[in-house]
Amino acid sequence: MTGGATGRAPGGLIPVADRIRWLLMCRAGLVAVLLGMRVTATGARVGVVPLAVAVLGWLALTGTTLPAGRRNRFAARFLLNVSLLGDGMLLAISWWALGGLDGPVGSLVLLHSVAVTLLASFRTGTKIALWHSVLALLVLQAKASGLLGAAVAMPGGRFGGYLGALWVTVLATASFAAMNERELRRRRYDSEVLRAFGLAVAPEQDPARIAMMLATFARDELQASRSAVVVQPHESVRPGADGAFAAVIDTDGTGTIHRRPSVPPPIPPAATAGPPTTKLRRSLDPVRHPWLVELMPRARNVIEVPFSTGEVSGVFVVEHPRRSAQRSSQRVEQRAVNTAEQAAAHAAVAIGRAILTDRIRTAADTDGLTGVANRRRFDAVLAGALEQGSPVALLLIDLDHFKRLNDSHGHLAGDEVLRRSAEAIASVCRERGLVARYGGEEFGVILTGAEAATAPQAAELIRDAVSGVPGPVTVTASIGVAACPPHEPTPARLIAAADAALYEAKRTGRNRVVVGTGGADRPVRILQSGADRPM
Description:
Number of strands: 11
Order of helices and strands: HHHHHHHHEEEEHEEHHEHHEEHEHE
Number of helices: 15
Oligomer: single chain
Radius of gyration: 41 Å
């Protein structure tokens, strides 16, 4: 009578072992009531002792099903079905013995059917009602044929009323139980998919990837025709914070990532006095969400779920199918709204954590004064590039007479020169390679791949950019360039070659570029130099 391939009810709600325990308690009450009815009844066809032996023996026998059911889920389902069939037979015998349609057991049969419907499942309840009906019909037919004493004509009208009362009560109870079970099953399913979604986004380190996972969740679990997630990192967390981005799932299921330097806040400050709340809208507001209107043109029947953490704010938008029952109404299932809100909360935390982790990692690899990479990052990138075996060129840049500048103008002026020089170098090489502060007034630039061949030209551009830095103090730069050594390409040999070239540039007058070959213990061959400009 019970279904499913596991020890749980359909939908995974209640283990069968728990249902057996509850029905055992119900059976104990049933036995007590039957004995009470027999003691008070007159003219019963079965004596008190035989009935007591039968009902108490059945109760003791079914009591053994509980430990057996806990050990094996298949056995639990089998024992539950057998015990319910046995209950029906016991009630049918008691029904005949205590007066049939004229006796009190009919009410007990009805109560048993309702209890099974509520404690087992609505499907099991309807099956046990059918079993009671069949057994009652067999008893009446046996009485009509004289098998159970004197023949008595079948009371068709009264039996029909009995069956009608039984089935109306059971079906009404089953309808209520079905709705309740369906709602519990939905809530369990929502809980499971939200848990799975939370576990999936937790280890992700790419904020855009997390946003796309949320947009995909809307299509897969909320039956959205289109969905979008717009994320704006908070500017207050870091000046010049990462730009806004949006993950969009279109009607054909394709996902795209869109980026912008910034967008208007998803929740304007004046829009609400309290925390942002979910909105159900017929269409997107072009004033409130102009970028979303571009990404989801002609969107209708949307759920807007705003979210905000210490690192980001954003909005999660779910569009309902145009042909759904909700197409012309703003009303949607509260379940869908709750699921969307919880999924957005999971994603917001994961996105904020990913952005914060990235910023912490960036801060650990960034020079605090100049904003370019630090020596730790420089060493790691150089070692990784050489391990890959791709062409590598290294530029070492030294600001000329920097000690004299500090002594003459002070260290604050020196810090400003370092910052502006770093900006000038980065403006030339930001798209070409890694710019790092190598130490003191020295910078390093790592060029890989095709860019390595253009190292001398890049060095000249850097030299011109540094000399053109505006400010109260003008500085120049000496630059040493070295390519990957032909033998034993190690970071130490490449740095030694570039350092030797830099030394030659400073020795021969500064404010120039020298491209060298060989290591620190080999002479530098000058391939190219810049114009000598006296300081």
